Amino acid sequence: MTLSRVRYFLWTLVAVVSATTALFMLPQYAIDGSQKSDVIIGGSFSMTSHLGQPVTEQDYIGQPMAMFFGFTNCPDICPTTLLRMTDLMKKLGPDADKLQVVLVSVDPERDTPEILKSYLEQFDPRFSAMTGTPEQLAAFAKGYRFVYKKVLLGGVNYTMDHSAGVYLYDAEGAFVGTLDPHEKDDVALGKLNKLMN
Amino acid sequence: MNVFRKTLWCVALLGTWTTVAFAEVKNGGPWKIEGILIEQAWARVVPGGSHSGAVYLTIHNTSLTDDLLLAVDSVAARETAVHQSVVEDDIAKMKPMPFGVDVKSGAEVIMKPGSMHIMLTGLTGALQPGDQLPVTMVFREAGKLELDVPVLPLGAIDPAVSHGGHTQ
């Protein structure tokens, strides 16, 4: 056997092994979109709830959670996400009581617990929110893989860029996926139902 | 003859006033200046604690000339500007439109949630359903237009809610 033949044989072997592995792996992911991800997105955090109580990841274990990011001075996207979540909760019916919906403020400079509490009053009463010090938020974001950035608008005015998705966690606190801002309601409801059952 | 003509003018003028007055109390327009027609204007309720709001509307350019929305303003806010919400690489951002908004001849520009909107920051008061929000729009060709935009309850005609999901 020449060297090139050996190489040819080995590459074929690699291809066959990869294809076989893929065949065994793929269906699980293709059929069940809520398959737990291998990526670790989570861990510990320490924040303050909209009721002024200190909270950690332990307070959210036991029930599935939909967590998203925003700030109260966000005029367009954040209320849109909150309204969408309000609407999805309605469509979930009684099951919605099992879901914790949490807004994480990415604007700790302006969003105090009192402001968040007042803000939430316009939406589903089951929603909660959290804020913290800039350091607490930074540590939270690192573990939970969300991003945010202050963008100056001129003068003292600023806005925040932030992760747009709604992150979903199961009752054990494991990350299972996201809701995309542009997907249809039935897709989102399918994901939420899977998360809760 | 002269008296008759004057009376006719008065009636015509009154008629115009009445039409204008009635057009303005209607929710969301329409408002018209030259070839520019604004309709379906509404502002979202601003939840407690927030000082930022958004106005949504549709601009039609019915004239043969391209136009440009140069500026927007409101006495109710510290700053008013047209912004575009975008989601890029899963990150929600707002982009200012420093060169104005093109409104080509015969075209329409739709401002809606999750997309282009008139952003108000530093609102001087809360926006409650039923309030009227004064907004000024300045077009390069058509000139200046004053609107009183109705504040609608949260989720009232929100496309994000009524159609499921929203597009950019």
Note the main attributes of this structure.
heterodimer; A: 197 residues; alpha+beta; Glutaredoxin; seven-stranded mixed beta sheet; two-stranded antiparallel ribbon; 9 strands; B: 168 residues; Immunoglobulin-like; 46% strand; globular; disordered C terminus
Topology-level CATH name of chain B: Immunoglobulin-like
Largest sheet data of chain B: 11 strands, mixed
According to DSSP, the number of beta strands of chain A is: 9
- When the domains of chain B are counted, the total is 1
Tell me the CATH superfamily of chain B: PCu(A)C copper chaperone
Largest sheet data of chain A: 7 strands, mixed
Number of strands of chain B: 11
Give a short overview:
Chain A is of the alpha+beta class and 197 residues long.
Could you characterize what this model shows?
The complex is a heterodimer of chains A (197) and B (168). Chain A is of the alpha+beta class and 197 residues long. Chain A folds into two domains: 31 residues; 151 residues, Glutaredoxin, CATH 3.40.30.10. Chain A is built from five helices and nine strands, in the order αβββαβαβαββββα. A seven-stranded mixed beta sheet of chain A has the order 2-1-5-4-3-8-9. Chain A has a two-stranded antiparallel ribbon with strand order 6-7. Chain B is an alpha+beta fold and 168 residues long. Chain B has one domain: Immunoglobulin-like (Sandwich), CATH 2.60.40. Chain B contains two helices and eleven strands; from the N terminus they run αβββββββββββα. In chain B, strands 1, 2, 3, 4, 5, 6, 7, 8, 9, 10 and 11 form an eleven-stranded mixed beta sheet that branches. The termini of chain B are far apart. Classes of the chains: A alpha+beta (197), B alpha+beta (168). At the A-B interface, α2, α3, β6, β7 and α5 of A face β5, β6 and β9 of B.
